[in-house]
Amino acid sequence: MESTEFTNEAFKDIRVRPVERSEEVRYQEQMARHHYLGALAKIGETAWYVATWHEQWVAQVSLSAAALKCGVRDRWIGWDFRSQYGRLNLIANNSRYLILPGWNRPNIGSRVLSLTERRVAADWQVRFGHPLLQLETFVDPQRFHGGVYRAANWLELGLTQGYRRTKEGYSAQADTAKRVFVRPLRRDARAQLTHPDRDRLQLIGAPKIMLNAEQMRQLPQCFKIIPDPRRSQGLRHRLHVVLGIAAGATLCGMRGYKAMSDWADALGQQARERFGCRRENGRYVVPSEYVIRDCLVRMEPGTLDRALNAWNQAWGAPDEALAMDGKTMKNALDQAGHQTHIMSVVGHESKRSYAPKK
C-alpha cells in the first residue's frame, strides 16, 4: 500500500520505534537532505526515532541534550543555575523533527509526537540509566508557528533571547528569538527537577564539565607513563591518546564505549589535534569504538586511577574539606588471619579519592 492511499482509518497503524544501528546512515542522509538545519551528530545521550506506517518511513525524531541556558524554561521550572547544573540530563531537546516528503497530512505530526512521548521515558531509563522528566524544543517563528506541538499538548513558555551557542560560548549579538515549547512527561516533573536529593533522581557522580583547549592537551600526557599492552604491529592510535579521549569523554558526561566513540567522532579538527590524534590524508582521525574498548579492557583500574589523579591535581577544584569513611569486611581475612578493613578519603569539592586503603 502506497502512502498516497493513506486514509483516516489507517491512522492508527502508525508506529514509532528507535532507529536501529543498521538504519542510522539512512536516517542521517534523509535529515541532511530534507531538514532545513541538516543532520545532527549523535553525541552523548541522544535517541533517534522513526515513525512508520506499514514499513514505510513517515517521520524522524531526534532527541538530544537540553539547552544549557533558557530563561523562560528555567523560570518555569523554578530552578537557578546552581540547582539545575548537573540535572539537565533529566530533560531532552527535540532537536530535529522531520515529516518526510509525501506525508504532510492532517494530524500526522501531533500523532507521531504523542507516540514518541509515550515510550521515550521508558527507553531513556533502560538506555541511559536515569529518568527523563521533560521534553523541550525551539521553533523558529520565521519558518513555523508550532501548531504541531500545540496539537500534541506541548506548552508554549515564551521566547528565547536569541543568542546561540558558539565554540567560544555564546554569540555576541542576538539572532531571531525562538518559541520555547515544553512537554512534561510526568505530572510532578517540575517538583522532581527541583528536588534537592540527587540520589532520588538517580543522578550519580559529579556533573559533567566542558574541557578547554589546555585541558585537552594535558589530559593525554597523564597516560604517557602507562606501557602499551598491545602488539606493536598495525597500531594506528597511540595508547595515551586513546585513554585521553576516553577520559575526556567521561569527564564530559559520556557513559559507555558507544557514547565515548560518538563524542570522539564529534570532535573538530582543532580538538583532535590538541588530543594528539593521528593525521591521515591531511585530517586528524580519532580511534574507533572497538579501539577504545580494546584499550580500556586491558587497563588495570589502579593504573588509570593514578593517572587521572595526576590530572585532577592540576585541574580539579581545591578541597576545603575531606570526607572519611571506613568499614570492616565481613568474612574477609588476609593471609595472617586478620580481618580486612577498608578506609577512603574523598574531597568534597573535587570528588577525588585521596587515600583508598586496605
What does it look like?
There is one protein chain. This protein has helices spanning 24-34, 71-77, 81-84, 108-128, 147-151, 189-193, 213-221, 239-251, 257-265, 269-275, 289-298, 301-315; strands at residues 14-18, 47-53, 56-65, 91-99, 134-139, 155-159, 165-166, 169-170, 179-184, 278-280, 283-285, 322-333, 339-347. The model has no long low-confidence stretch (mean pLDDT 82). It contains twelve helices and 13 strands. With 358 residues, it is α+β, with helices and mostly antiparallel strands.
Summary, kept brief:
With 358 residues, this protein is α+β, with helices and mostly antiparallel strands. It has helices spanning 24-34, 71-77, 81-84, 108-128, 147-151, 189-193, 213-221, 239-251, 257-265, 269-275, 289-298, 301-315, and strands at residues 14-18, 47-53, 56-65, 91-99, 134-139, 155-159, 165-166, 169-170, 179-184, 278-280, 283-285, 322-333, 339-347.
Task: Give the number of DSSP strands.
Answer: 13
SSE sequence, one letter per element:
EHEEHHEHEHEEEEHHHHHEEHHEE
Structural class: alpha+beta
The low-confidence runs, each spanning 5 or more residues with pLDDT under 50, are none
Tell me the overall shape.
Answer: globular
Please give the count of helices.
Answer: 12
The main sheet orders its strands as 1-2-3-4-5-9-6
Task: Give the helices and strands, then pairings.
Layout: E1 14-18, H1 24-34, E2 47-53, E3 56-65, H2 71-77, H3 81-84, E4 91-99, H4 108-128, E5 134-139, H5 147-151, E6 155-159, E7 165-166, E8 169-170, E9 179-184, H6 189-193, H7 213-221, H8 239-251, H9 257-265, H10 269-275, E10 278-280, E11 283-285, H11 289-298, H12 301-315, E12 322-333, E13 339-347
Parallel strand pairs: 4-5
Antiparallel strand pairs: 1-2, 2-3, 3-4, 5-9, 6-9, 7-8, 10-11, 12-13
Helix pairs in contact: 7-8, 8-9, 8-11, 9-11
